[in-house]
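Quick illustration, no need to memorize.
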Amino acid sequence: MEPITFIIANDLSMIPVVQAGAASYLREAGAEDGVVHQTELVIEEMITNILKYEYFDGQSETLSLTLSLSENFLEWRIRFRGIPFDIENLKQWKNRTADTNSIIESDGRGLGLRLLHHYSDDVTYRNLGWEGQEVIIRRKIPVVEITPLAVRKMETTADTREIHIRRMRPEDAPAISKLAYFAYRYTYIREYAYDPEQVRLANEDGRMKSYVIVANKSGEILGHMALFPDDLFGYVPELAAGFVHPHFRGGGSFNELVELMIRDADAEGFAGICGMAVTSHFYSQKAALRSGMKESALFVSHVRSLTMPDIKEEPSARESFLYLVRMIDPSPRQPWHAPTRHSEMIAKIARNLGMTATFAKPSSDAPLPDRGEMDCRADNQLCGHLVVRRWGRDTLQGLRRVVKDWCLDRLETIYLYLPLTEPATAVYCDNLEEEGFFFSGIMPGQKGADSLVLQFLNNQRYDYSSLHAATPFGKALIDYVWRCDLTACDAPAPSDES
């Protein structure tokens, strides 16, 4: 049961509001009626005591009260900014040692605190300095196990062994948004996935192409996946938004779904499909690997922390992604102008992807036009993307100007995409690495128009020990990127998979 928090004014009229919300929370969690009633009494006594004794007359403040239920322990946690506690004096009520005269002299405060202790197993008072005061009350309670309604319905009506896969219909949109919430709560990077109307519009205007897994008997939507256009190059769409209710993970139906999507991508003439898999656990990597994708790059500090119930409980500071590709058209590439120091690793990535790559001889004689061509865009994850379409004599200066501006704008990470088919990429890569960029990998494109990817961390010292790979090659790629990042603080974690 997720915690619930009330933020109220320090006014007695707010007590019934909190009591009603707490009662609903406990009943939903399966608490008995007696526990609900006792909790309402505790809330009344606790807030009344704080409002009466911990503020000056007329002082206007707010209080926060958080209720949580875990392993049959109910916890109330209240924070406020009032008069500092005399904790030694409060201990007499905690230890229940005060006599009747003391209760009378306390103007009734002692009676309320005795009642509070009577209905709890532990009460803790804390002075928090500038943050004010905190009271923590814990009580062990019996609860009746209650399964949320959405889960109960799916358990009783859905049969994952009898499913079919099809393109999304407009009426499927609400179910897709629910699955996004089940899978990620409210941390999935494409915010519009939580709005059914936006899901419909995105499928109509081409921002996404959704497919769904449907239970034959009930017609319920059990899973979802979509193809997203390649915004940078338009060659390799991303396979993403893989949502499935946690109760139905591991059914294997996503493999069939992915194969259908790959056939559609092939029919539309795409060079391949790609996927971004988190590195804090193996699940999304394994799903991508089962679909035939292979590791091609590591995007460090790519998005804000993600929450994935039942998979990843403790969020990291920022999530890194492995970029994986399945080539539909692995035809021979145009000769690559790769920087010498990275050519061996780049060749390994090409072999991993099943591509036939050749390397041009290093040369600094190729003339450059006066003006190059470059695209710049920032995303909602505090990342910037710099795409060099064509090198020119002004390109390095232009890159430096954009990077400086983005650093001042507090972007966290900057990714730079350089055309491997141009000699200038090999020539100027060293200059860029001297200025803080480091190796990420390669991104295949249409008919050999492939890119070398570099990355820049803005005032970050990234902890690579939190990154995990599902294959030896993924582990080797993470290790290589770590060695290229001269500001890194910790080595990659040992691979947990072989």
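Residues 235 and 445 are 6 Å apart (CA to CA).
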